[in-house]
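Structure ticket #2291
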Amino acid sequence: MDLTDVLADDADDSLLRVVEYNNNRLVLSVRIDVLNGEEHQILLESPIHIDMPPEMMLGKIVFGDSSLLPKGYTSSRNKGYEGDEVDWRVMKIIDDSENDFYGVYFGDLNVS
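Resolution: structure written out below.
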């Protein structure tokens, strides 16, 4: 099974932590409970906006496009990127309490 599928379907009670965040990339570490606590990294290139705490317990992570964002999200957070929403990639994070968080980025995704 692909790691993105595991994160979308079986990430309950997995620990997600921010390892590095700058203008060029966001690196997250995730310790996946259903994989016997194996630790993996999620790398997002060219982050635009990150809306998440530095550490949380996961419910799941879904990767997709700007259709994953709630209505009104772009108007309140799109400072300097107006008109580029069609090129956005989105990581929607749902924690173990069913709260939604987002990572929005332009670049590549690498889950390893």
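Closing remark: The mean pLDDT is 89.
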